[in-house]
Design a protein that fits this description.
mainly alpha, 2 domains, 119 residues
């Protein structure tokens, strides 16, 4: 009789364990979802800040770099730019707007050179 009682107790406790496991798995899933949402929110804010910074940088360059800026000539004219790794249009424009303009650096070929190159 005592053995029957123990087996009945096990039968009763077994559903509770299963229920506890289900509740635990649901809680864990909710925690994962919350963590993902928080992580995504942080990532989205970082991306928005980067986009705003890029837009501000583009506006700065548009306002401070002349339309006839020849970045290849600008880099070709100055070895220190090439040595500093300035090898793209964006880098050249950024450098000229921040430093080259105030230093009086030339971003176009001299007219005499242009005439010689056109012939």
């Amino acid at each position: 009789m005592e053995q029957n009682l123990k087996s009945k107790e096990r039968k009763i406790k077994m559903p509770e364990k299963i229920l506890n496991k289900k509740v635990l798995s649901i809680v864990l899933a909710l925690v994962v979802v919350i963590l993902l949402a928080v992580t995504w929110g942080v990532h989205a804010r970082k991306m928005a800040k980067k986009a705003a910074w890029r837009q501000a940088q583009e506006q700065f360059l548009a306002q401070n770099v002349p339309a006839d800026f020849d970045w290849k000539t600008y880099v070709r004219n100055y070895a220190d730019l090439r040595n500093a790794g300035i090898d793209t249009e964006a880098k050249a424009k950024q450098h000229w707007a921040e430093y080259g303009k105030n230093e009086g650096r030339v971003y176009q070929e001299a007219p005499e050179k242009r005439l010689l190159n056109e012939k």
